Structure formats: structure tokens, C-alpha cells
Amino acid sequence: MPGPSRSLVAGIDSSTQSCKVVVREAETGRRRRLGRAPHPEGSEIDPRQWWTALHAAIEDERFLVLPHPEVLEMYRRKGSDYDRWLRGMRRYQASLLGPES
Description:
Elements: E1 8-14, E2 18-25, E3 31-38, H1 47-59, H2 69-80, H3 82-97
Antiparallel strand pairs: 1-2, 2-3
Helix pairs in contact: 2-3
């Protein structure tokens, strides 16, 4: 016998950089899905571009939109060897802060 049905609600946020969609269970507030899609460059967004970004965020089965392929590799390395990833992030942070850090 199937369990109780749950009502879902979607929240849509279109900012200057991206369109985000969050789907939650109405009764508990538990997040079920999160999707993001970037807007094209520029400060004014044509409504058709917004609509395209919205659809991309909703339809993205991965619900993980990365800014460029290198970020995916970073996530993979983080998951496979967390200590190595932390050392790399510390080196990266030090390079950004300069010799005084």
C-alpha cells in the first residue's frame, strides 16, 4: 500500500546572476530538490532568457549546475581524498591572501 501523498511547493528566485528553484514538502519544509541555472552576461535580462534559465533549473536532473568543468573535478577530488583537498584549498587561500598571511 502506498504511503501518504505529500504536497510539494516550489519557490523560484530570479536574481541578477541566476535563476534558482527550490522544491519543498509543504507540511514539513523538507527540501526535495534544488536547481540553479545562470543568466547570460549583462544587467538586463530579456524575459525569454529568464524563461530559458527557469526551465533549465527545473529540468536539470542533476540539480547541480557548475560554473565550469573544473569545479566538477574539484568536487570529485574533495570526495575521494578530503585531506588532500583541504591542503590544496589552504594553498589556494594562501596564494590569494599573499605573503602576509
